[in-house]
Amino acid sequence: MLIMSYLGNDPKFASAPQGAPGAAILGRASIGKAAVLEDYAVVRADGHYVTIGDDFWLGEHATVHIAHDVYPTHIGNNVTASRNSVIHACDVGSNCFIGADVVILDGSKVSDNVAIANGAIIFPRSKLQSGWLFAGQPAKPVRQLNAGELEALQSSVRGAPRKDLRRGESNSVIHPPADLFFAVTANANGSLVVGEGVGVWFGCDLDAGIHSISVGQNTNIQDNTTIRCVDRSVIIGRESTIGHNVTMIDCEIADRSLIGIGAVVAPGTVVEEDVLLGAGGHTNPGQVLESGWFYGGNPARQISKLDDGKRQIISSTWPVYRDYARHFKAEQLTVGQ
Question: Which of these CATH numbers, 2.160.10.10, 1.10.3720.10, 3.40.50.800, 3.30.70.20, describes 2-158?
């Protein structure tokens, strides 16, 4: 497991966490006793802090992060977060279960004793009431929890047999620029061509196969994102952001676009420049996302024209990530995995 400081701030632990291969805890994180991080799970506290209580379980390729200078993340005791889930800049109470592929977004407050079903998206600033099961996109209360249901859900994840997710060594970058940040727990295979100021973050898995993955200047590919080339190359333009835990296959992303947390970009998708695809959005194969629009939902559809606020989100995210990358790149020079 990788443990790394950020701006001189080391993670703090009440007891040594158990970390599987590729797991990472970074920066201003404070974690209680008996934490377990499965393969390639990431807790990253750079632009704000993260506090986590005792008996925390973070599943494979799951991510905990913050909102830069806006929201920290607080997680209570006895919380289970399943594989490929994202807990982002929010508060999660104690005795909670978070299913697979769940995204909890900025400013949300999850009360104690809550269960969230697989694939749910918790929209920003939502409030989830204690004692309920939530599901859907956006997540809604489905029913009250039965006695012992939370415990059974947690046991079903914590007691499941572990899969071997270890990967081979990365062997792909072609003439990398000097300022490329490629996280030590990321992986890339095949032809990867990147511009200046690119960041490929912790837990990412990029496989170009017999094709290539091209990433433009100042673009960031955030933690635990998966990119695959099956029948064609993947092209990502400049000054774009690919959020945490995104899945992309055989697609094209133009300049100055943002692909939200947990989105799935289907084969043949073309995202034109100046597009925001919301968290959890799923495109259809061959879909074209037109320039200047905010898309969301499953399947993705036009929600609204980009306003100044959304354009600001796109334009302000990549410089923040480029700055993060400079600090972590320097830290990687002194820390071994």
Answer: 2.160.10.10
202 close to 23: Cβ distance less than 8 angstroms: no
Q: Per residue of the chain (337 residues), what is the pLDDT tens digit?
A: 999 999 999 999 999 999 999 999 999 999 999 999 999 999 999 999 999 999 999 999 999 999 999 999 999 999 999 999 999 999 999 999 999 999 999 999 999 999 999 999 999 999 999 999 999 999 999 999 999 999 999 999 998 877 766 666 666 656 678 789 999 999 999 999 999 999 999 999 999 999 999 999 999 999 999 999 999 999 999 999 999 999 999 999 999 999 999 999 999 999 999 999 999 999 999 999 999 999 999 999 999 999 999 999 999 999 999 999 999 999 987 765 4
pTM above 0.85, yes or no: yes
**Quick one: which of 225, 227, 224 has its CA closest to 251?**
227
Report which residue type is found at 123: F
> Which strands sit side by side in the sheet containing 36-37, from one edge to the other?
18-19, 36-37, 57-58, 79-81, 96-98, 115-116, 132-135, 140-144
Beta strands 73-75 and 91-92: pairing type? parallel
